[in-house]
Specification:
This protein is α+β, with helices and mostly antiparallel strands. It has helices spanning 4-34, 41-68, 123-129, 234-237, 255-266, and strands at residues 85-87, 91-97, 103-108, 113-119, 139-144, 150-157, 163-167, 173-181, 188-194, 197-205, 210-215, 220-226, 240-247, 251-253. It has two domains: 4-71; 85-266, Beta Barrel (Porin). The protein has five helices and 14 strands. The radius of gyration is 19 Å and the shape is globular. The chain crosses the membrane at residues 16-35.
C-alpha cells in the first residue's frame, strides 16, 4: 500500500532542492547588481527578486512538508463523500480569471458558477505572482460544492515536477495524483489514485492540451481542452485560464472527479 509519509517526504525534499537552486540563482543576479555589471542590470533586476522570493517560498513549504510527513498517518483513508452532482450542462469551463488568480470556478456557458476552490496564499506567494504565475509553487485550496459546503482540502506540491493531494475536511488523505508519460506515444497521463487503484485518469497530447478523462473501467466521462475558447461564450471566457470541459456523462458526477479537474487546472497557476 502506498505510504503517505513517504510521498510527502519526497515532496518536501524536492521543494527544498528546487528552492535552494532558485534562491542561489536569485542571489547571483542580485549580487551582479551590486558588482555594477551594467550589461546584465535589466536581467538581474527582472530575475533576481523573482527567483529569490520563489526560492524562499519553496524552502519554507519544503521544510513544512518534510516535518509534516513525520506526523502524518501512513495510509490513505476511504473517501466517504458520496453526494454527487445530479446533472451538469454538456459544455462548461473550469479555470480562474486574470483578475482573481487565487480562485478557480466551474462555470456553465452562461457564467453560472457550480463549484469552486479558494486558495489562501501567503505573502511570498502573492509577491511571486506579481511577476510569475507560480506554477512551481505549492498551494493549498478548499473545494466547495454547489451548496457552498467545504468538501475537500486540496494540496498542490511545488517544484519542477507536480503532485497533488486530496484530503477530507478533517484532514485524512483520500487520494493523490501521479503524472507519467507514455513511452510509446509520448502522451501525458495524469492519474487520480485512491489507496492502490486509479479512480480517474486524463490522457492526451500535452502540446495540443486535449485530454480524455476516464474512470477506472476506461469509460470516458469528459474531454477537456486546455485554454480552448468556446465560441458561444468567447467574450466571457477569453480572459479565463483553464479548460473547456465537454461532458460525455452528465449525471451523477462524483465530487472526486471535480477535485481531479481542479487539480489539473492548478498545474497552470
Amino acid at each position: 500500500m502506498t505510504n503517505v509519509q513517504t510521498l510527502i517526504r519526497q515532496d518536501g525534499r524536492r521543494q527544498l532542492i528546487t528552492g535552494g537552486v532558485l534562491f542561489a540563482g536569485g542571489l547571483f543576479f542580485l549580487l551582479s547588481i551590486l558588482a555594477l555589471q551594467y550589461q546584465s542590470f535589466p536581467l538581474s533586476l527582472l530575475y533576481g527578486p523573482v527567483l529569490t522570493i520563489s526560492g524562499l517560498a519553496l524552502l519554507k513549504t519544503g521544510y513544512r512538508d518534510y516535518e509534516k510527513a513525520k506526523q502524518t498517518d501512513n495510509g490513505f483513508t476511504e473517501d466517504h463523500i458520496i453526494e454527487p452532482v445530479e446533472k451538469l450542462p454538456a459544455r462548461m469551463y473550469v479555470g480562474h480569471s486574470t483578475k482573481d488568480v487565487f480562485q478557480a470556478t466551474l462555470y456553465d456557458m452562461d457564467g453560472k458558477a457550480y463549484t469552486h476552490i479558494n486558495e489562501k496564499p501567503n505573502l511570498l506567494h502573492k509577491l511571486t505572482f506579481l511577476a510569475y504565475y507560480g506554477s512551481i509553487l505549492s498551494a493549498d485550496y478548499i473545494m466547495y460544492n454547489q451548496h457552498g459546503d467545504a468538501v475537500y482540502h486540496i494540496e498542490k506540491k511545488g517544484g519542477f515536477s507536480w503532485r497533488g493531494y486530496v484530503q477530507l475536511p478533517k484532514g485524512h488523505y483520500v487520494a493523490y495524483t501521479k503524472d507519467t508519460k507514455h513511452k510509446t506515444t509520448g502522451r501525458r497521463i495524469f492519474r487520480y489514485i485512491e489507496k492502490d487503484y486509479c479512480r480517474w485518469s486524463a490522457e492526451g497530447d500535452p502540446y495540443i492540451g486535449h485530454y480524455n478523462v476516464k474512470d477506472h473501467e476506461g469509460n470516458v466521462w469528459a474531454v477537456i481542452k486546455q485554454n480552448a475558447i468556446p465560441v458561444e461564450a468567447a467574450e466571457r471566457f477569453e480572459e479565463v485560464n483553464g479548460y473547456l470541459v465537454e461532458w460525455k456523462r452528465r449525471e451523477e458526477i462524483p465530487q472526486s472527479l471535480l477535485a481531479f479537474l481542479f487539480l489539473l487546472q492548478s498545474r497552470q497557476n
